[in-house]
Amino acid sequence: MSKTYEGRCFCGSVEFVVSGEPEAMGYCHCESCRSWSAGPVNAFTLWKPEAVKVTRGAGEIVEFHKTDNSHRKWCRKCGGHLFTDHPQWGLIDVYAAVIPDFTHKPGVHVHYQETRLRMKDGLPKMKDLPKEMGGSGQVLAE
Ligand SMILES: [Zn+2]
Ligand SMILES: [Zn+2]
Question: Which of 24, 27, 93, 94 could bond to 44 as cystine, CB 3.0-4.6 Å?
């Protein structure tokens, strides 16, 4: 039995569980995440699609595709953000903020060239993305 963690939207109409461990965790500083979340940085956890199960309110989930690789999803009742599907990577970003019982253990910062909030935590700061995710693989100073 793998460990499961419950998550929900801002109003609670949508509930879901994630199970096991994510493939990666960190912070995204990109303009899209900042603009969409209205926050300075997005704490992400990336899961295989089969690890994420919506248990309530699936019909309330709506989505917007600014790019083919980021399908951003939220609850239409409250506007609370839930996930970003990344179909080209076969991963789902479940925002750390919506799975409060899961301990976010960040390993990397991505899109740091776009940062508006420098974070001096000693973790690697990728200019954009790691090479295996289609980026330059370049690391910047904090
Ligand atoms: Zn909601
Ligand atoms: Zn981002």
Answer: 93
Two tokens at 102?
């899961």
pLDDT digits (tens, 9 = 90+) for 48-73: 999 999 999 999 999 999 999 999 99
CA–CA separation, 30 and 127 (whole Å): 10
Q: Ligand 2 centre and the CA of 1: distance in Å? A: 32
Ligand 1: centre distance to CA 39 (Å): 19
The CA 95 to ligand 1 mean position distance, Å, reads: 15
Ligand 1 centroid to residue 2 C-alpha, Å: 27
What ligand is nearest to the CA atom of residue 109?
2
Q: Could you report the per-residue pLDDT of 101-141, keeping only the tens digit for each?
A: 999 999 999 999 999 999 999 999 999 999 999 999 999 99
CA 32 / ligand 2 centre spacing (Å) = 6
Decide: 44 and 89 in contact? Cβ < 8 Å: no
Q: How many CA atoms lie within 13 A of 31 on its CB side?
A: 3
